[in-house]
């Protein structure tokens, strides 16, 4: 059975490691178990940056195998989640990003007066 590092690596807090047999995949350790993850098509694992990167930026070996070996393979079920869950997640994700960092919704400038400001004051005087 495959093993992940026993000690937490401060330089690699997400526990991401190269696959020694394939430049286009990597392992992510969770609860002490390594899970094989695939890079998007056309990208290769970059062990220095700890992400999938363009081949010219990756540190993959000439033979297509990674020079970095830290874990053994532990295969998982890579079936996609059900579509109902995905659409709920996507709408939640989209709504989180519909506002500016200051919390104001997109398209409403901060600090500009409302077009009705001041009208009520003249009516009450």
Automatic annotation (TrEMBL):
<feature type="compositionally biased region" description="Basic and acidic residues">
    <location>
        <begin position="65"/>
        <end position="100"/>
    </location>
</feature>
<dbReference type="GO" id="GO:0008061">
    <property type="term" value="F:chitin binding"/>
</dbReference>
<dbReference type="GO" id="GO:0005576">
    <property type="term" value="C:extracellular region"/>
</dbReference>
<dbReference type="InterPro" id="IPR051940">
    <property type="entry name" value="Chitin_bind-dev_reg"/>
</dbReference>
<feature type="domain" description="Chitin-binding type-2">
    <location>
        <begin position="1"/>
        <end position="62"/>
    </location>
</feature>
<dbReference type="Pfam" id="PF01607">
    <property type="entry name" value="CBM_14"/>
</dbReference>
<dbReference type="InterPro" id="IPR002557">
    <property type="entry name" value="Chitin-bd_dom"/>
</dbReference>
<keyword id="KW-0325">Glycoprotein</keyword>
<keyword id="KW-0732">Signal</keyword>
<dbReference type="InterPro" id="IPR036508">
    <property type="entry name" value="Chitin-bd_dom_sf"/>
</dbReference>
<feature type="region of interest" description="Disordered">
    <location>
        <begin position="62"/>
        <end position="125"/>
    </location>
</feature>
<keyword id="KW-0147">Chitin-binding</keyword>
<protein>
    <submittedName>
        <fullName>17890_t:CDS:1</fullName>
    </submittedName>
</protein>
<keyword id="KW-0677">Repeat</keyword>
<feature type="compositionally biased region" description="Acidic residues">
    <location>
        <begin position="101"/>
        <end position="116"/>
    </location>
</feature>
<keyword id="KW-1015">Disulfide bond</keyword>
